[in-house]
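Write out this protein's structure.
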Amino acid sequence: MNKLTIRDAEPAGRRLFLRVDFNVPLDSKGAISDDTRIQASLPTIRYGIEHGAKLILASHLGRPKGQPVGSMTLRPAAERLAELVRSPVAFANDCVGPEVEAQARGLAAGGVLLLENLRFHPEEEKNEEGFSRRLAALADLYVNDAFGSAHRAHASTVGITKYLAPALAGFLMEREINYLSKAVENPARPYTAIVGGAKVSDKMELLQNLMKFADNVLIGGAMAYTFLKARGVEVGKSRVEDDKLELARNILSFGERRSIRIRLPEDHVVTEKLEASAHGEISAGGIPAGRLGADIGPATRAQYAAVIADSKTIVWNGPLGVFEIPQFAEGTLAVARAVAASSAVSIVGGGDSAAAVHLAGVGEKITHVSTGGGATLEFLSGRKLPGVEALTDRE
């Protein structure tokens, strides 16, 4: 990575504005139900504490639409962080203003202050200059560890860097960029891309970019039925994007011209309705009228697993079936287990596929499980991420 990191600064005694991604799920009582994103930034936070920085943490939570919403306060995140770092974490009732500035000035070396939800102010998402300047007034140094928000040009990820320089990467940001770069820069071969999810339109750029590098492309999820129909296979009443059939044909033709092996499901778990009580049955080849595809079938799982086992680089984005319904989850879980068993460099991106590897109990066996959803997708699609571009280049 050619960006400066927190290691390139001397943070002792300085106020360090650390953009983190604490956009964590909360249950009906307002308690954090999954603290993965908080834990992901602990190495950077602990580094700051141990090196005597005065840490000012900032994040968004949910979509409050530019106004305070009680159910979207970051106070539970402050309480959970205090438990994880085993030291007090102060909480600010706002993210800008005289009171917050006084709290920031009053921090002792190694102290931590978490600001209230950035998105309680509409200026955050607008990347408004005045708001960026007010955020910058809180600190002497800027570090971005929120890879999951790097695809957004917001005040706390881009605007603030005009007033706090240099702009440094935290350890999570550095790790994400380094591993995701391995997927698109001189990857070890054979290279296998596994792409699932509901819509071809959502994954079009991803597919087109990965096919510049891939030797194999394994397609699953609802988007597979658009490709199957484009090949003339019967898909019953499966979800199909008819306006993307020509695009699907073009992608298949491109693969043939480049000798890329694009594999589509050869058998399916089909059902009449996608609901929790639905019964699944195996259908080889096409899908009968009145049925829709809900998962890849056992023959396809075995075929995909064999390709995965022979790979040296694996990039996976998107589930291969309706895995939130247990009887249609086995295809996705089988792929997760196959990826984990492989000796390849394995990179899993996207919320659903990341959830799948954890559901399968194999998260620790994956080389890198990305914390980014949209940011990971855009990076692998070949787009520049504003939050990464705003970081200071290493000379």
